[in-house]
Amino acid sequence: MGSSTFLSILFFHFLLLTLSHATTFDIVNRCPYTVWAAAIPGGGRQLDTNQTWSLTINPRNTSARIWPRTNCSFDSSGHGHCLTGDCSGLLACQAYGSPPDTIAEYATFQNKDFFDISVVDGFNVPMEIGPDTGSCPGGRPSRCSADLVELCPKELKVPGGCNSPCNVFKTNEYCCDNERCTPNEYSNFFRRNCPDTYSGLNNNQPSPFTCPHGTNYTVVFCP
Length: 223
What we know:
By secondary structure, the protein is an alpha+beta fold. The protein has a single domain, classed as Thaumatin, CATH 2.60.110.10. Helix content is 18%, strand content 35%. The protein contains five helices and 15 strands. The protein has helices at 3-20, 148-151, 165-169, 172-175, 185-193, and strands at residues 23-29, 35-40, 43-47, 52-57, 63-74, 80-84, 103-109, 112-118, 127-131, 142-144, 157-158, 161-162, 197-198, 210-212, 217-221. The strands form three sheets. Strands 2, 3, 5, 6, 7, 8, 13 and 14 form an eight-stranded mixed beta sheet that branches. β5 (63-74) and β6 (80-84) form a beta hairpin. It is globular and about 40 Å long.
């Protein structure tokens, strides 16, 4: 067998292995309004009600972040602005969004996926992430289905969203940047209304939402 043929076979098997471990996220908008989905890696896309964006993450990417943007306006070159979740004025995001934004987080480590909905940066749209049916026996979604924009304490309210106490007050008490942080009235607000989310407390504890690596996921805006 010639060396070029042998290398071609090796590359083909590597390609199959790579494709078999890619992770797909079906991002679905169930909101009665348009949401501009954003993802790092992945970019961004406008999703009208009931539209889906299927996003495949290369297995070399061991983490991902997906979030909704609202009240956006972009020109034909993909430049513009969003009221919430804006990522430097680009339709196809190249950086994380501006708070407040609800975030779906994903990471893989030692052949295991960890995922959750985070409200560390506040909240703008109800959101859920969970494994596709049958792909992760016993797996359950992380969800924040309450309308925290409507329920938001007045101190945290901003146009289109509910900010995090850390972003508003910028103190150790509310930013929880040490192991001595304790629940407060604002963290309790998020945990009470969305108990299955990550809110910044207990930073040293892993996410309780796990699946075997290779699982595919569905992300839903307004579950």
